[in-house]
Every structure is written in structure tokens, then in C-alpha cells.
Amino acid sequence: MPLRPYIVGNWKMHGTRAMLSEARAIDRAAQRHMKVEVAIAPPYTLIHPVHREAEQIAVGAQDCHHEEGGAHTGDISANMVADAGGKFVILGHSERRENHGETDAQIKAKANAALEAGLRVILCCGESEKTRDAGRAVAHVKKQLNASLPTFDEQPEDLRERVTVAYEPIWAIGTGKTATVDDIAEMHGEIRALLIKLYGEEHGGEMRILYGGSVKPENASEILSTPDVGGALVGGASLTADSFMGIALAAGETAEG
Ligand code: PGA
């Protein structure tokens, strides 16, 4: 059975406890959309509060450190995320790569640590506008993924559920611009081929590849019905239950065909 469409909210550095009512509303609405897997990644401070209240949605983190613990002021380990009730972690977001100088090798170490701690991983990739204009978008994304996707001595049985890739063209994040359906289809097709090469057809052929970058209820149906798009990573439009669940509704309708 193919995996359900995966709609993940990335709250970034937004949200105090006042936002818990929004998380509750998302959770209630998700109970009416069981054909879609809905999850949110709030700031660290809200992981446990959301976990305590959520019945349907999964809660996760937006980053983690690759070590289990130690002298790393300000960092949080994958075990700590899991201990707070987190079920997944977003890794390698372009804002982490840009603001914190994260490298592919560091992201890979984080991915392996997160999987080890029992978390699922959403690994982000994407090109800048300059790279796309130079015709190097596909090569750039493949290079990022080859160097940052986790590797295994022995693949876990549920690998296809535990690793998700999110393609987010940097120029589309928070800008209102989205890639064309043709560009998304091309990139997701390339990512699919890479996943099959790395993990085999059984896992790589089934893993979800999310699209991210200015996804909204108005453009969700078109994006989510593109081949090899298994869901969306949503920033701005995930901050209210109304707009976020509008995207989940579109995902459900797309899945039903
Ligand atoms: P956006 O952000 O939906 O606000 O463009 C997406 C993301 O950065 O994950």
C-alpha cells in the first residue's frame, strides 16, 4: 500500500503557548482527514506541550545535534526531541544551511543520529535562484542528497516510512513564488531515481518526496497531483489551522483521485 500523503507544518521561529489553540484545531481537523498524515514542527519549546495535547498529529523538531549529549551550549539532541514526544525531525533546511553554515556531512550525521534515536527524518534540499538560472538545479540537489542522506549497514524494515525528502527551491520559500509543475515533476523524478538507487525499489520507490516553498490552499491541488509529490512541507500557511488544513484537504482529495 502506498504511504499516505504527508503534510508537514514548519512553524520556524513562530509560536508561543498562545499558539497551542491552533495546534489543537489542527489536531481536531486531522481527525477528520485520516487519509492524510498531518504533522507539525513547532519551536523546541512547544514540542512537549503539543505532544501532550495531540491525539492525531505527530509533532517534531526543526533540527537536532548529531551527538547524544555533551558540551554543546544551546543545542538539542535527537534523544531529547524523542523524550519530549517528538516523532520526527526536519534536517538540512536551507535556513539552517544559510544561517548556521550547516554542511551536507553534518546533516548526514544528524540524520543517522535521529534515526538511531527512533525519530523519522525529513531531509531538505533545494537550489538557489542563481543555481537554477545557471541550469544546475538538478545536479546541485543530487549532490546535496548524495552527501546528506543517511546510509545503513542494514536497512530498517520500515525505512520507507522513516526517511522523507523535502525539495524546497530556496527562491520559492516565503516568497509567494512556486516552481512550475514541470520543474517539480522533473526534480521529483530525479530524486525518486536517486532514492531507488540508494535504498532499492522497495524503500526508495515508496519514500515520500515533499514539495515546499509557498504552498497554500490555492495551489496545493495542482502541486500535490504532480507525479512523485508525496506531500508538502509548509511554512507560512501552516501557522493557522484554516490554511494548513485547507492544504491537507487538497491532499486528501488528490489521494482519492
Ligand atoms: P513557506 O516555507 O511555505 O513559508 O514558503 C516553507 C519552508 O521553508 O519549509
What's the layout of helices and strands?
Blueprint: E1 6-10, H1 20-30, E2 37-41, H2 47-53, E3 58-61, H3 78-83, E4 88-91, H4 94-100, H5 104-116, E5 120-125, H6 129-133, H7 137-148, H8 159-162, E6 163-167, H9 181-204, E7 209-212, H10 217-224, E8 231-234, H11 241-256
Parallel strand pairs: 1-2, 1-8, 2-3, 3-4, 4-5, 5-6, 6-7, 7-8
Helix pairs in contact: 1-11, 5-7, 7-9, 10-11
The structure holds 2-phosphoglycolic acid.
Describe the structure.
- Strands 1-2-3-4-5-6-7-8 form an 8-stranded parallel barrel, surrounded by 7 helices.
- It contains 11 helices and 8 strands.
- The protein is an alpha/beta fold and 257 residues long.
- Helix 9 (181-204) links the parallel strand 6 and strand 7.
- 2-phosphoglycolic acid binds at residues 10, 168, 173-174, 212-215, 233-237.
- Residues 10, 168, 173-174, 212-215, 233-237 line the site of 2-phosphoglycolic acid.
The unreliable regions are: none
Beta-strand content: 5-15%
Beta-strand segment tally: 8
Name the CATH class: Alpha Beta
Strand arrangement within the widest β-sheet reads: 1-2-3-4-5-6-7-8
Percent helix range: 40-55%
How many domains? The number is 1
Distance between the termini: 15 Å
The CATH topology label is: TIM Barrel
Mean pLDDT: 96
Return the CATH architecture.
Alpha-Beta Barrel
Shape: globular
Structural class estimated from helices and strands: alpha/beta
Radius of gyration of CA atoms, rounded to a whole number: 17 Å
- Main β-sheet description: 8 strands, parallel, barrel
User: What compounds sit in this structure?
Assistant: 2-phosphoglycolic acid
* Element-level helix/strand string: EHEHEHEHHEHHHEHEHEH
Total helix count? Answer: 11
